[in-house]
Amino acid sequence: MDRDHLPPVNVVNACLRDGRGGSPTAVLDDAPLSEEQRRRVPVTLGTSHAVFVTTGEDGRGRPTASLRFFTAEGELPACGHGTVAALALLAERSGAEEYRVSLSASGRAFDGRAVREGGDREGGARYRADFDPGPVQLRRPAAEETAPVLDALGVTPDLLGDGACTIASVGRPRLLVPLRTRSALAALAPDTDRLRAACDRLGLLGCYVHSVPTAEGRAAARMFAPSIGVPEDIANANSTACLMAHLATGQGADSVTVDMGDTLGAPATITASITAGAEPGPSGPLVRVGGTAVLTHVR
């Protein structure tokens, strides 16, 4: 599918930092397209992901939206920054200053919200969006599981933070890898082919490598996901939700702010917090995750 045959596509920069950067994400109304055509959308537009949206209403007239997420490699059960991007577009279309919607993806229903923060109503509107990513499942991997992944990442024992690596899942598992410093994180140069092979063997979406959060709850992260056709993601909200659940379980933290995208020249920031006043679910604490998004243009 070339640009001339694309249906109308909104490009939304999701998870901005201080009003700039973010992850360009294709968002479009769903249409009768083949899987191959859906996979071609992000390739054609040069985005990592594409989100296909079907809107409706529930029995009480409240808005609903079904989301499907694709990369060049195929469909994903969830995409955090894609959800942020879709929420921003839906909020803009609604005209509301605060927009709430019942979302569904891969058979799971969850709620989303977007609040207008500024921008020109004729274009470039900016929204703060957040959503419930679902229960986060955590487990401690065996050393033989992490060794080939860490080797492909180029992470040696002296670089690891005090916390152990963790496999976390919101739909698909990924490995959380803590590093002592931001400088060690920035210097990583993974062997992409070996990393993909290691992740494929373990059934991992990829690796979310992060610095140890400061006392104020600020960290940096890089998400390597060659198994889904994304060598490095500018922003990854679902993995940040996984980190939040891990920090809450192990350290009692209630919020985290994560900077991403700097090595790619696209600064991005994601925030996650424990849902205030909510009792932990069967899988652990309930998390809310989100970021700021701006609508850039329509192709």
Automatic annotation (TrEMBL):
Residues 114-131 have a biased composition (Basic and acidic residues). It comes from the Bacteria. Residues 114-133 are annotated as: Disordered. Transmembrane segments: none annotated. This is PhzF family phenazine biosynthesis protein.
